[in-house]
Each structure stands twice: as C-alpha cells, then as structure tokens.
Amino acid sequence: MIAIALMFAALVQETVDNPEYKGWSSFKPGSTVTYTLTRDGILQEGVQKITLRSITEKEAALELEIIREDVPASKPLERQVPAKLPATMTEKVLSTGEEEIEVGGKKLTCTWKALEKVLSNGKTVKAKVWISAEIPGMAARIEGGGSVMNASKWEKK
Questions:
Q1: Which of 8, 11, 34, 63 makes a 20 to 30 Å CA pair with 107?
Q2: Exposure b/e, 1-28, CB count within 10 A at least 16 = b
Q3: 34, containing H or E segment
C-alpha cells in the first residue's frame, strides 16, 4: 500500500519549466555556443562548445565538446535536457537585475539571476547567471565556485 502511495505521489508531483530547456527552445538544431573558462582568475586551456542536436516539446538534445587547439579533446558528450523538472529540483532565485556585459566581443544588455541550490548531498551552491536571448541556451556568463564561463562565440540557426 505504501509503495502505491509513493508511486501516486511521484506521478502528481508538481513540475515546473526547466530554465535550461527554455534557453534552447527558441533556437533550431545546429545552433551553437562556445564558452571560455576562467578558474580562480586563470584562463583555462581550450573551450567548451555546446550544440543543439534536436528539440521536441519534451526535451532538448545537446552535444558538449571540449576543444583544445581547434581539436576535440575527447568524444563529444550527449545529454538530454527535459522541458519540465520536479519543482524540488529547481534553484532558489536570491536576486535579479540587469547589466551590460561584454561577451564574444559584443556588449549585451543581460538580465542576471543570483541562484542558490541545495544538492542531494546537502551542500549548498551559489551561482550568478547573465541571460541574453541573443545567445543559444541564453547563458552569456555563469559565475560560481571560483569559475567563470563566458560565451565567446555563438551561431543561431
């Protein structure tokens, strides 16, 4: 009886729009964004390139490549990004604002969100994300844990 109640609870669990999926939903397959990574103030070697492979009403399929000296460093990783998430998996928005930043050699006016999330291990992580509809995935910059990812180039399809 308890197992049935737990299964029913899982079925009726509140879901919310997944911000990551939403960031890709207005772009067509083949759209890409490339990020540089700075860790503790030091620019890291190589870049991270994300390509939208496909998108449906239920999920986006993304391909992630790490590229060093214009050559893929390993096999691309694929991941599925669901359109909806359980409400318990979303992060808490601490504050929001608007700011002009420079990414990819362009000045963009972005909205930003300071976020906090409690991980399954109980650890709390904080991040700040700058969002621009110009960029596939919409993340222009992401800061957190001593690392900064900046969009360095992108291509919209």
A1: 63
A2: eeeeeeeeeeeeeeeeebbbbebbbebe
A3: strand 32-39
pLDDT (average), residues 56-72: 92
Tokens of 26: 């207005």
Domains belonging to the chain, first-starting first, are 17-155 (2.40.360.20)
Tell me the C-alpha distance between 56 and 91, whole Å: 24
Report the mean per-residue pLDDT for the chain: 89
**What gap in Å lies between CA 40 and CA 147, rounded to an integer?**
6
Which residue pairs from 30-33 have beta carbons closer than 8 angstroms and sit at least 24 positions apart in sequence?
30/155, 30/157, 31/136, 31/154, 31/155, 31/156, 31/157, 32/136, 32/154, 32/155, 33/135, 33/136, 33/137, 33/139, 33/151, 33/153, 33/154
pLDDT confidence of residue 13: 67
Query: What is the spatial distance between Cα 16 and Cα 96, in angstroms, rounded to a whole number?
Result: 19
User: Which pLDDT value is given to residue 72?
Assistant: 83
CB atoms within 10 A of CB 79: 13
